[in-house]
Specification:
The chain is mainly α and 537 residues long. It is built from 26 helices and no strands.
Length: 537
């Protein structure tokens, strides 16, 4: 590898995006809370789609999901395709209820349904989940990916562990500059720019991979995959698969409903849209982009399985090995830059969300109610610095996870996600649930998650359930608990303070229904085509 050329192009593209983002947002007053946290509600649909995609997409997916695909095949594409349904649900059902109240955070919404204590508790839980169950995973996978591309430990003569930590520290510093200094405007703009580069670079990898298999001929390479890997092309998994098809309608759907409909990290992006219709358009544009995801998040893993076979060893190395084998030297710097952009995007979005939650839901709503916008923003920025340090310190602890980084992250996140989803859904459905029932569901649901998983792994009456089915059981039990509280200890129904202060009539995007149906048809079609190819056409 021509290291000076690769590293030089990497530095050029890495510096170019933040310079553009700074230049275009330099006149914004980020001491104003509305501007810093919501980009002054000025984002067009394509920036909504860009920041949603890049917040979601990072190295834990590029490496982890492709690694899983190299072992388990196309069944893992459910993590990319099921979000289409969740994004449609967000545009149709959740967004109008959030938008009408002109809210900034999900805890703020829950205060209107329950009480201030519920808002504080949810804020603390989400901050803990971001700090120890999301951002360290982004840093860990990002450090591994960047270190592997440049073979940093060989070049600098240091240990792999030290090279990883050096890259993780670089990611932390760059992310802090975006999220803490630039606010949401800079985050959304840089995400959009990186999104174009990442889609371009990532879509090149499967094409080059097929050419590599076919010794220069893409059609021949695809023929090899069809002939030798038909089982891995089948997206419909049986009961013993990594993602059984039945889980798409239980835990897989619920996990994605949380992530795209009630997760502050994601919904805050749509809150920054310049209009309600623009937010809906951005959400469905994101759904369309998710259908492209399997091409660069799943298919390269299957190509790597055909190209390298069992010599891959750890599945998490599949994508890095394929990139190393097929990417021309002149593209390495560009690809590394957009890959770093994906990591930065996920990390700084988590960081910006943490600053927003702390500023609105803890500092202003609890610690210092009389603070000014300037003081609230400053408190959020200081807290963001603390989060950066804590996440960087926690990231090395993930090394050597026996079940892989991607699966470990999803299983742990479900402990926090499912209770939050249950409380938000019940809060939207009825105003009679008492605050105590919501609080006990938030806290007790985390413990119940691990108890149910332990029982399932150990076997209950000789019957074991997939962990995605288990989290659906947890969701149902929590909902029943809260509805039971509403039945026996009902709260007095009152008008929601949030919904009562809405912005009036919401004008939806006029093509919302047509676009939603086209997305559903495309989703079913994607599964049908791959199933047909796997069965030998």
């Amino acid at each position: 590898m021509n290291l000076p050329l690769a590293f030089g192009s990497f530095l050029f593209f890495t510096a170019l995006v933040p310079l553009i983002a700074w230049w275009l947002t330099r006149h914004r007053d980020n001491t104003d809370a509305r501007t810093f946290f919501l980009a002054d509600r000025s984002l067009p649909w394509f920036q909504i789609a860009g920041t949603l995609l890049l917040t979601n997409l990072s190295t834990e997916q590029l490496i982890g999901l492709n690694g899983a695909a190299s072992i388990h095949g196309a069944v893992v594409m459910a993590w990319e395709v099921v979000p289409v349904v969740a994004l449609i649900a967000m545009a149709y059902y959740f967004l109008p209820r959030y938008w009408s109240g002109n809210i900034t955070t999900i805890p703020e919404f829950l205060e209107s349904r329950f009480d201030r204590g519920t808002r504080r508790l949810l804020g603390i839980i989400v901050l803990a989940a971001l700090t120890f169950n999301f951002m360290p995973f982004v840093l860990y996978s990002g450090g591994i990916a960047m270190g592997s591309i440049f073979h940093l430990h060989d070049v600098l003569g240091i240990s792999p562990e030290l090279s990883f930590f050096a890259m993780a520290a670089l990611i932390t510093v760059l992310s802090g500059a975006y999220a803490i200094l630039g606010g949401m405007s800079a985050v959304a703009l840089s995400d959009t720019l990186y999104g174009v580069g990442l889609l371009t670079g990532a879509l090149v990898i499967p094409v080059l991979g097929l050419a590599y298999l076919g010794e220069g001929d893409i059609a021949t390479g695809f023929g090899r995959v069809l002939a030798h890997q038909p089982a891995k092309l089948n997206p419909v998994g049986g009961p013993g698969a990594n993602v059984p098809f039945s889980t798409l309608f239980t835990g897989m759907l619920l996990t994605n409903m949380y992530y795209w409909c009630t997760n502050q990290l994601m919904v805050q992006r749509s809150f920054g849209a310049k209009s309600y219709a623009e937010a809906q358009k951005g959400l469905l544009a994101t759904a369309g982009l998710k259908l492209v995801g399997p091409l660069f998040l799943v298919f390269p893993g299957i190509i790597a399985a055909e190209a390298f076979g069992a010599s891959i060893g750890n599945g998490d190395l599949a994508y890095a090995r394929l990139v190393d084998a097929v990417l021309p030297t002149w593209m390495i710097g560009f690809f590394a830059a957009v890959l770093l952009g994906a990591v930065i995007s996920s990390f700084n979005s988590g960081l910006h969300t943490a600053a927003t939650l702390f500023g609105y839901d803890l500092y202003k709503a609890w610690i210092r109610p009389q603070c000014t916008d300037n003081q609230m923003v400053r408190a959020g920025k200081i807290f963001g610095v603390i989060i950066c340090v804590a996440s960087l310190a926690a990231s090395p602890l993930l090394s050597g996870a026996p079940e892989g980084v991607f699966t470990l992250m999803k299983r742990l996140m479900a402990a926090f996600n499912i209770p939050i989803l249950a409380v938000v859904v019940i809060g939207l459905a009825t105003a009679r649930v008492p605050p105590l029932a919501a609080k006990t569901a938030l806290v007790g649901g985390v413990g119940l998650h691990f108890l149910l998983l332990w029982c399932s792994d150990s076997g209950v009456f000789g019957f074991q359930l997939h962990w995605l089915h288990v989290i659906a059981i947890n969701f149902a039990l929590l909902c029943l608990w809260m509805l039971g509280g509403a039945r026996f200890f009902p709260s007095r129904p009152t008008a929601s303070p949030v919904l009562a202060t809405g912005a009036g009539v919401l004008t939806p995007w006029r093509h919302l229904r047509l676009a939603s149906w086209l997305l559903v048809i495309a989703t079913v079609g994607l599964y049908a085509i791959l199933w047909w190819l796997a069965r030998g056409r």
